[in-house]
């Protein structure tokens, strides 16, 4: 199990395939297992890396000092340590927030961003939003992880034919280190880089499930405030789109990455070709 020490923490990661690097960032309470249906499809064409955030998966768990900014710093340290040049960054939910933070902190690093069922801020502004955030924090602190896992599994995978997904989710979620999970949840609530979206200079694909927690219109609004960005909606999907609609998601992602790579190659070669034509 590959491990790497970054920022005084021991991280678990995976590294498969070859080619242009793609870094996959998982959601809250999860790990690289978020991407079990993407890694085989992506690694045929790309070098695919997954990093378990501090407090998650096989990475050290202290439950102290967590923030989205810290998670992004960890990712940047990983990118540097692994020698990744212009990686594509794909983030699901909390992973999308980390990707937003990374791209605003270091806009020169990513070749592209793919943001899945996420947003550039989680700042409750209206009374109903404050109520919902407070309720989620309260129940997360008082309920056992197994109870939280069962409730979330029914929201994510409600169909009878998704029973295997529900059982897998419950098993994985219940195994969370409680203090680290709570610290990560607190890191999300109140975080935001919405006022810095103009710093993002790479192409952005925003993927939304049609039945995600947050409405499609919310994604459409923040996409409209970014330069080279587009929104794609996947039907009959909930928050765990890479799991409940893997084929549709993989097709969107692979097409987007291919388009970005083709555009980068064209941009790189055009000046050289122009110079040759004058000889």
From TrEMBL:
Domain AB hydrolase-1 per the UniProt entry, residue ranges: 22-250
Gene Ontology cellular component list: membrane
Keywords: Hydrolase
Coiled coil segments of this chain: none
Record bears the keyword Membrane: no
Sample GO molecular function, one term: hydrolase activity
Keyword Hydrolase among UniProt keywords: yes
InterPro entries reported in the protein's UniProt record: AB_hydrolase_1, AB_hydrolase_fold, AB_hydrolase_sf
UniProt xrefs under Gene3D superfamilies: alpha/beta hydrolase
Full protein name: Pimeloyl-ACP methyl ester carboxylesterase
Classification lineage: Bacteria, Pseudomonadati, Pseudomonadota, Gammaproteobacteria, Pseudomonadales
């Amino acid at each position: 199990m590959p491990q790497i020490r970054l920022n005084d923490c021991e991280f678990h990661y995976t590294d498969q395939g070859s080619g242009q690097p793609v870094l996959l960032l998982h959601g809250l309470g999860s790990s690289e297992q978020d991407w079990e249906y993407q890694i085989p499809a992506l690694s045929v064409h790309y070098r695919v890396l997954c990093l378990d955030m501090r407090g998650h998966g096989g990475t050290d768990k202290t439950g102290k000092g967590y923030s989205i900014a810290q998670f992004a710093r960890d990712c940047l340290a990983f990118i540097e340590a692994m020698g990744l040049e212009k990686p594509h960054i794909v983030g699901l939910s909390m992973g999308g927030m980390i990707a937003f933070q990374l791209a605003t902190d270091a806009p020169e690093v990513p070749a592209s961003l793919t943001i899945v069922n996420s947003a550039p801020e989680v700042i409750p502004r209206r009374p109903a939003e404050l109520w919902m955030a407070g309720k989620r924090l309260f129940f997360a602190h008082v309920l056992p992880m197994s109870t939280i896992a069962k409730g979330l599994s029914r929201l994510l995978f409600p169909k009878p034919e998704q029973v295997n997904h529900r059982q897998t989710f419950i098993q994985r979620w219940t195994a969370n280190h409680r203090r680290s999970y709570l610290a990560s949840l607190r890191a999300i609530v109140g975080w935001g880089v919405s006022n810095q979206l103009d710093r993002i200079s790479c192409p952005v694909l925003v993927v939304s499930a049609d039945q995600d927690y947050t409405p499609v219109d919310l994604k459409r609004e923040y996409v409209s405030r970014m330069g080279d960005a587009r929104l794609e909606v996947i039907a009959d999907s909930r928050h765990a789109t890479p799991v409940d609609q893997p084929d549709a998601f993989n097709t969107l992602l692979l097409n987007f990455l291919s388009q970005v790579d083709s555009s980068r190659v064209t941009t790189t070669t055009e000046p050289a070709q122009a110079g040759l034509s004058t000889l």
